[in-house]
Give the backbone structure.
Amino acid sequence: MAVGAMRIKKGDLVQILSGKDRGKQGRVLEARPDERRVVVENLNVVKRHTKPRPVRNTTRTAGPQIEPGGVISKPAPLPVGNVMIVCPTCKRPTRIGITAKESKGGAVRVRVCKRQDCGQEIDR
């Protein structure tokens, strides 16, 4: 397993490399760097059977509200190694490089596309 910072962030468009949703693209809803996993919108969907349970009411205005039970579909986390970011410029899955860019506040680290014919910044 690679050590270091995860280069995929919340809101990035990614493509799944392996598993039941291989080849599909979606937005990252949640990044979990400590687990090295990401949750992708509408991909790797699993079903959970849940019991109805009361919701803690913080406003204290109405009676006890109940969270409905039943079979709930929700996206499950994927290992970050199974997804690849899609470059917004060349629209292809790519590896990510990091370069230092000078700005008025000093040097800023920017993610860039590693494709040889692209090389554009991913962070806008």
In short: The longest strand covers residues 25-32.
